[in-house]
């Protein structure tokens, strides 16, 4: 079978794929159909955080798979309970709702916030403020939350009740919070798809202050930034704030689908039986894998992520063809003269897989990528950034 033409025939054309068929991997190295090897600087968009074919992850998943693959939420299972407890112990959040993707985790956060506000401030207090250039998912509600008009135009009407404001503009959000009925403010501490834009400590602290004063919930979307990516377990921990709701997905599953909404003190009891649900949510195989992942994100690993991130940033910043490098830990965005897509294509030719985010080259390598591979990848990226 010719995969490319068969894919074109039978798969909906939502993804413009690169002409590469990945067949296997080990750690931070991936192999394609023609036995060409690549350094993986994207980890499946921040998912395979311990790389490919990781032994601990495989053992945890296969052990559970051989016991029972799925039960539905009608019954108790141990993996989801252990995972929920670990997430709460490590964050101070109080309760967890499990879903299957980032978008669904955010849907849950939005539902929790709307119910909280409706009960406390009335049914007309439903607005959620998000930031321009944010990305929160592809369902109609999370698209409405996504502050990028380019995603919206074909799918109107979207779920009403979302207002987007410019990041870092304190007056703008203050005016919105004072003039409209607001249930929640939802942010990514580092915008991923929007271009690896890091929010300043000053702004994040301001948001926490103003939301606390007005009993507006602060939701932090950690779908991309979570699970050690930025050198902390969750990126909000870089700011010493406590959100009311945290959402997690991508890296949490280590490669299997999972999403989680972590509910803080104010909303821990917001849902009653029947208020929300998911057939697959809390699936025991996904949760067993995720528990293995979460248990291994300790201070030693996090310090290594910070160190590796600085190493990579330093190596890249030395190039005169790279204008700037944004981001934190192993979540980096590279601004170049050349178009990001051209750089990514050139890197691919030379054996490095990278991502784009708007007009930047985005790097989300596995958190345990050896230093020598990071240095080698940086060389290839720098080369790809050179003018013709
Ligand atoms: C990827 C992403 C999502 C959506 O996650 P899916 O699993 O694709 O639904 C939501 N928020 C952020 C910040 C993301 O990076």
In terms of topology, how is this protein built?
Blueprint: H1 3-10, E1 22-26, E2 29-32, E3 37-40, H2 43-46, H3 55-67, H4 78-91, E4 95-99, H5 102-121, E5 127-131, H6 140-145, E6 162-165, H7 170-179, E7 182-187, E8 190-191, E9 197-198, H8 201-213, E10 217-221, E11 245-248, E12 259-263, H9 284-296, H10 299-317, E13 322-328, E14 331-336, H11 340-349, E15 352-353, E16 355-357, E17 360-363, H12 371-385
Parallel strand pairs: 3-15, 5-6, 5-7, 7-10, 10-11
Antiparallel strand pairs: 1-2, 2-3, 4-12, 8-9, 11-12, 13-14, 14-17, 16-17
Helix pairs in contact: 3-9, 4-9, 7-8, 10-12, 11-12
The structure holds pyridoxal-5'-phosphate.
Key descriptive features of the protein:
388 residues, alpha/beta, Aspartate Aminotransferase, domain 1, Aspartate Aminotransferase, domain 2, seven-stranded mixed beta sheet, four-stranded mixed beta sheet, 17 strands, globular, binds pyridoxal-5'-phosphate
Task: Describe this entry's structure for a reader.
This protein has 388 residues and is α/β, with parallel strands linked by helices. It folds into 2 domains: 3-53 and 299-385, Aspartate Aminotransferase, domain 1 (Alpha-Beta Complex), CATH 3.90.1150; 68-295, 3-Layer(aba) Sandwich (Aspartate Aminotransferase, domain 2), CATH 3.40.640. It is 37% helix and 19% strand. The protein contains 12 helices and 17 strands. The protein has helices spanning 3-10, 43-46, 55-67, 78-91, 102-121, 140-145, 170-179, 201-213, 284-296, 299-317, 340-349, 371-385, and strands at 22-26, 29-32, 37-40, 95-99, 127-131, 162-165, 182-187, 190-191, 197-198, 217-221, 245-248, 259-263, 322-328, 331-336, 352-353, 355-357, 360-363. A 7-stranded mixed β-sheet has the order 4-12-11-10-7-5-6, with helices on both faces. Strands 1-2-3-15 form a 4-stranded mixed β-sheet. Strand 13 and strand 14 form a beta hairpin. Helix 11 crosses helix 12. The longest helix has 20 residues, at 102-121. It is globular, with a radius of gyration of 21 Å. The chain starts with a helix and ends with a helix. Bound molecules: pyridoxal-5'-phosphate (PLP).
């Amino acid at each position: 079978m010719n995969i490319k033409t068969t894919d074109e025939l039978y798969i909906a054309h939502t993804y413009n794929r690169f002409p590469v068929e990945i067949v296997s991997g080990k750690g931070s190295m991936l192999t394609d159909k023609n036995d060409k090897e690549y350094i993986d600087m994207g980890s499946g968009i921040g998912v395979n955080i311990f790389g490919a074919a990781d032994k601990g992850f495989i053992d945890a998943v296969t052990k559970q798979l051989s016991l029972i693959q799925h039960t539905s939420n009608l019954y108790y299972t141990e993996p989801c309970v252990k995972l929920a407890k670990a997430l709460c112990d490590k964050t101070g959040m109080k309760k967890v709702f499990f879903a299957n993707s980032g978008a669904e985790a955010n849907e849950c956060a939005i539902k929790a916030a709307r119910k909280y506000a409706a009960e406390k401030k009335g049914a007309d207090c439903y607005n959620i403020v998000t930031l321009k250039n944010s990305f929160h998912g592809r369902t109609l509600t999370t698209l409405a939350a996504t502050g990028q008009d380019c995603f919206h135009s074909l799918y109107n009407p979207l779920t009403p009740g979302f207002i987007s404001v410019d990041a870092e503009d304190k007056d703008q959000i203050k005016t919105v919070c004072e003039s409209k009925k607001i249930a929640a403010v939802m942010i990514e501490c580092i915008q991923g798809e929007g271009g690896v834009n890091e929010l300043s400590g000053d702004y994040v602290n301001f948001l926490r202050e103003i939301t606390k004063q007005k009993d507006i919930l602060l939701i932090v979307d950690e779908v991309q930034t979570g699970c050690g990516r930025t050198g902390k377990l969750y990126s909000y921990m870089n700011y010493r704030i406590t959100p009311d709701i945290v959402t997690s997905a991508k890296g949490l599953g280590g490669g299997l689908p999972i999403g989680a909404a972590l509910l803080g003190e104010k909303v821990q009891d917001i849902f009653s039986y029947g208020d929300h649900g998911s057939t697959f949510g809390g699936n025991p195989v996904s949760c067993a894998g995720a528990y293995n992942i979460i248990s291994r994100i300790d201070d030693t690993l996090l310090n290594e992520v910070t160190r590796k991130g600085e190493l990579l940033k330093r190596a890249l910043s030395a190039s005169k063809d790279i204008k700037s490098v944004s981001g934190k830990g192993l979540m980096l965005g590279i601004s170049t003269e050349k178009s990001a897509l051209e750089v990514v294509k050139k890197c691919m030719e030379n054996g490095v897989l990278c991502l784009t985010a708007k007009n930047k080259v985005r790097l989300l390598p596995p958190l345990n990528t050896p230093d020598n591979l990071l240095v080698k990848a940086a060389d290839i990226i720098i080369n790809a950034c050179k003018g013709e």
